[in-house]
Amino acid sequence: MSSSIATDMWPLLLASTSPQRRAILEQLGIPFEAVAPEYVEHDPPDADPVELVRDHARGKARSVVRSAGDRPVLGVDTTVVLDGRVYGKAADATEAERMLEELAGRTHVVVSGLCLLTPGWEVVEHESTSVTFREVTPRELAHHLAHGEWEGRAGAYAIQGRGAALVERIEGDYLNVVGLPAALLVRLLAERFPGAYGFG
User: Fold this and answer.
1) Could you give phi then psi for residue 19, rounded to 5 degrees?
2) Catalytic site residue 48?
């Protein structure tokens, strides 16, 4: 997929199949092409979450660099953390239910790693956003799970979808919770490519 917005630079090569990440880049007016990363994620629950998402973002970006030419490559990975434990993508509805029960009424952190690389350099950073869930009744939880929105989502919810009903408040970058730390990306583009993408 490519955006149609012109720029003085080549489009970013996004190492992701996530429709949310594509939508955020479109929203920001950043031209890009998306390609599936040749990288297999592994999310051990006891892993250091910051190192995990940074490593995944770097791995995704590096896995597609052969297709990039001189274009900047963008890799992103996002996970949910509660009490130091990583909540990745639920394997089934039962695991999704357990995750949401544990997140209910508490504040968790959404952590994203971002890797931006070119033939000359590589930068890896991360962003965190705090999300507080309200208390959820068993009926509400069953209703949420029935829609299947938990599938393929870290923490088994999508804040831009029905998962918004679970959220009481957030502190930080909302788009980071959706799946791409937009403020961090804009800052890096402004620093590394001043003016080229409309920033800096």
Assistant:
1) -65, -30
2) no
